Amino acid sequence: MRVLVAPDKFAGTLTAVEAAEAVAAGWHRHAPDDEIDLAPMSDGGPGFVDVLHATLGGELLAVTVTGPTGAPTPATLLVVDDTAYVESAQACGLHLTGAQGGEQATTRGVGELLAAAIGTGVRRVVVGLGGSGTSDGGAGLLAGLGATADVPLDEGPAGLDGIGTIDLAAARERVAGVEVVVASDVDNPLSGLFGAAKVFGPQKGLTEERLVVVDAWLERFAEVAGRRTALEPGAGAAGGLGFALLLLGGTRTPGIGLVTDAVGLPARARAADLVVTGEGAFDFSSRAGKVPAGVAAVAEQAVRPCVALAGAVLVGAREMRALGMESAYSVVDLVGEERAFADPAGSLADLAERVARTWSR
């Protein structure tokens, strides 16, 4: 049997590459002769660069950038032919802020990553958005590329208080001649009821009382930098990084679609008998541009069954099938929560072995 294994990361426990390898190991315990094609996936968030490197190869370049709290932070960019891939979470991710960066954390390092990518001489830079711990509207990114204002742009959204003018000329000149692609499935505007602060601020440490304040700072930033752009779908992605990249002429594309195309997933699904995907928690949010839904859509187009292996399955059978899955299986249900966290790879492998007994002919 030919099995395509295309999981997302299991947040906090396994990278997508590790998850794919664990599934393959467990599957082969029951069906050692099955052919397994590993295609770890990402929607643009954490793991974006590693996933693409695992499939596309290319050259990994190590750089040091300004982290969200101002400390030097290591990051990696991937160069494949004339395209560079940048993962914004490496420079401003939630794992770097500890969910305490709602008002002061900066995205300056993302601008420095983008500048480093452009410095390699590529014609195209793809910036994966997701998993950010920042809410500065991408002001720090703009500062990292040379933009200036009458207030500090690299001191988080709090630094934008009272902004009156901004000069983007240097930043736009820095990216001139390079195609900038924004890989994100988030379609929120920058500010307002469905904006970056109101929707995503709480997970970054913003209290209910401060959401209104930060949203007002972003609203003023939008008035000064580009009100129309701030209303575009995706401007609120990654705490407003989408806004900054759109201001610089970037074009937005769904992250899962970009990765799907880059790794050739449709052709690989057609060559398989079964498609296996997965993520840490398979729930209602899995519908909104997440990896399992994207992989299931590819499987459906290839007329192949798709099953999900997840840390926890939080939807019923009807909702699961609405997401395009034949079945979904839970690590926690099999081994318990304690072991699932203590030995995530081994636990996922055990689940894969169990699933193989059902699906492998």
UniProtKB/TrEMBL annotation:
InterPro entries assigned: Glyc_kinase_flavodox-like_fold, Glycerate_kinase, Glycerate_kinase_RE-like, Glycerate_kinase_sf
Its keywords, alphabetically, are: Kinase, Transferase
Source species, domain of life: Bacteria
Any one Pfam family here would be: Gly_kinase
Q: Matching Gene3D superfamilies, A to Z?
A: Glycerate kinase, domain 1, Glycerate kinase, domain 2
Q: Does the keyword Kinase apply?
A: yes
| Keyword rRNA-binding recorded | no
Matches recorded under SUPFAM superfamilies: Glycerate kinase I (SSF110738)
Q: Which family does it belong to?
A: Belongs to the glycerate kinase type-1 family.
Q: Please give the PANTHER family that the UniProt record associates with this protein.
A: GLYCERATE KINASE
Entry protein name: Glycerate 2-kinase
UniProt organism field: Nocardioides aquaticus
> What is this protein's gene name?
garK
